[in-house]
Amino acid sequence: MKARSEKLTLQEAYVQSHHRHHRLVGLCRFLCFFTFLSAWELCADLDIINSFIFSSPSRIAYTIFLMWQDGSLFLHTGVTLLEILISFVLVAIVSLGTATLLWCSRTLSEILEPWLVILNSLPKSALAPLLIVWLGSGMRTIIIAGMSVALFGSVISVCTAFRESAPEKIRLIYTLGGNQAQVLYCVIFPESLPAIISILKVNIGLCLVGVIIGEFLSARQGLGYLIIYASQVFKLNYLIAALIILCVIAFGLYQIIARLEHRVRKSRQAQP
Amino acid sequence: METLLQADHVSYSYHNLSGETPALSDITFSVKKGEFLSLVGPSGCGKSTLLSLLATLLKPESGTVTIQGRIGYMLQKDHLFEWRTIWKNVTLGLEIQKRMTQENLARAQQMMKDYGLWEFRDARPSELSGGMRQRAALIRTLVPDPDLLLLDEPFSALDYQTRLHVCDDVCRIIKKEGKTAILVTHDLSEAISVSDRVLILSHRPASVRRELPLSFTDSRLTPMARRQTREFQDYFNIIWKELNADESEI
Ligand SMILES: Nc1ncnc2c1ncn2[C@@H]1O[C@H](COP(=O)(O)OP(=O)(O)O)[C@@H](O)[C@H]1O
Ligand SMILES: [Mg+2]
Prior knowledge:
The complex is a heterodimer of chains A (272) and B (250).
Chain A: H1 2-45, H2 51-54, H3 57-70, H4 72-104, H5 106-121, H6 127-135, H7 139-163, H8 167-175, H9 180-217, H10 223-232, H11 236-268
Helix pairs in contact in A: 3-11, 4-5, 4-7, 4-9, 4-10, 5-7, 6-7, 7-9, 8-9, 9-10, 9-11, 10-11
Chain B: E1 3-16, E2 19-32, E3 36-40, H1 47-54, E4 62-67, E5 71-74, H2 86-90, H3 92-96, H4 102-114, H5 130-142, E6 148-152, H6 160-176, E7 180-185, H7 188-194, E8 197-201, E9 208-213, H8 223-226, H9 230-249
Parallel strand pairs in B: 3-7, 3-8, 5-6, 6-7
Antiparallel strand pairs in B: 1-2, 1-4, 8-9
Helix pairs in contact in B: 5-6, 7-9
Bound molecules: adenosine-5'-diphosphate and magnesium ion (MG).
Magnesium ion binds next to helix 1 of chain B.
């Protein structure tokens, strides 16, 4: 009995130290952030750094407030976000579809392999100018620019994930009288789901990069456009504000997929 | 009795660029309804290949296999899917064959209850012990109601003690469900303790070296009990000699 209660307190001590660790990390993160912002602000106010070039937190906050008032905040953010999401969803659909096809046909995958490898190793930012000439400027081009960065790598990774399924599990489906479609549905898709989610996590970042590249080159709206425009007319407040909004978008999208990943992992674990 | 399976002069080779691997040569045997047949032979001799042919996962290069009825195939490992509950795993065959009828599901449910897995229906495979997982795999094979069961070293992934119990367990279930079965094993005592007839295969390419019908004075002994009998010893020696004669020829 005594040993048991002692064990319990040891467990409690462990949990407590765990929580303490988390609180410490949280506090330090906040302090770092706070110190950074205050130092920045102070340096700008005391003219240690040139506030015209480096801006300052208060100026950025004010800029964002102005943008919010004239509605341009929602316009630019909304446009960029929409382009990222559309290209992300399209990449997911196209790469799952293509990888499925390639899994089904060895021959097709062998024929297409050099194409995929070349297209994937191409620096995609070099493609964007060509896309603009071919497709004109507009949201469609920017979405395709966003896709072009993520798509080929995504197809290759998904295909690799599909191939990693244990051959014995596939055999099991055939012994139960299944066909290729059922192998896909019952083994390949569920087994590679965690890998697919990691690939999606990478894709969302790449789509963001592609969309911003596209907007740099040809856009009248969006955060990429705002960055280029602000740099040309030397409105550094706007430029840094746009960068910060981009950070928030990237973080938010990443978090959504991380949540999804967590949920998938949980749903596969045993119910207590 | 009705013949359920007939293999006639079956041969098979694997082909790849580095050459041909003959795996089976001229194998002929049959299995009657309700019989329990064991296949023993040195490892790598082609036993799994033979089962794949019987299950029509492979086509014989020459010869024919005729089967009356449905086949159930149990692989060496349980291969239960972690992303499915035990119930979903057990009914996988029905789902694949699109036979999720009330009647079939009721039978699956009854089997889970009979064989002590019903309370684990919502559990994940990783929560079950090795023996229970193997039982779940057997039920998964039995639920589509096959006429002939093919068991490919189904116990070899288990430790010795569990293996004896699970073997007893599985044989009891197979007998109770009135199934015909072909068991592949490299464990001679396992083969003798469970089967009505043993087919001894030669080294690769496998051919039938000898067919040995087993008869015990008490025909209702459990596998475990058979191991204590005099006949068991005799059969063991016969098969042992046969396999080792094969060894010395090489
Ligand atoms: N896909 C394959 N390609 C080439 N050779 C194979 C293949 N599968 C099995 N073999 C060979 O065929 C022989 C028989 O294999 P198998 O039937 O698995 O033997 P067992 O089950 O009796 O151990 C082995 O020597 C193995 O190396
Ligand atoms: Mg084998």
